[in-house]
Amino acid sequence: MPTPEPAALQLVKLWYPESAEEVVSWCAHIHMQSVLPEAIIIDDLDVFITQSKNPEHGAARLIAALVDAAAWIASKSERCKLIFTASHRVTVLPSVLRQFHFRIAELQKSSAGGENDFQLTLTHPSSSSKNVVTVDYTITGDNIMLRTVTSRSLPTDKTVVPAV
């Protein structure tokens, strides 16, 4: 893996909040920051959600605060991306993320590979919104290999609801 340039590393601010409340507070005070982020990346989002007595409520509250903060940042600096990682421990998380219109990509162990082999499938509507493009990758060690790219037409019936 290439070594990042020192100038690029100076642009990254790492922060290790201990609770969902700390993240929500940061979101509520984002307007007081002198430098706004272009991306908010939260690793192990499920850890924060499991701190709540009601995981679905806790997830919705945390995601809502992050979405609101990102929207405010984007209104001031043109963009702010939200990226989360989470394990499957919190079963309510995918449904909460879908309510906020997030796209979910799942990384799964490859059935044909070794212990360090994974499969990633990304599905996204095309810009014309008439097709859905699916890209499959295989990840082995440091190698990411494109497996397939498929495109399929969306149903024309307007009453069809996408599967959750």
Automatic annotation (TrEMBL):
PANTHER family: ATPASE SWSAP1, PTHR28653. This is ATPase AAA-type core domain-containing protein. It comes from Batillaria attramentaria.
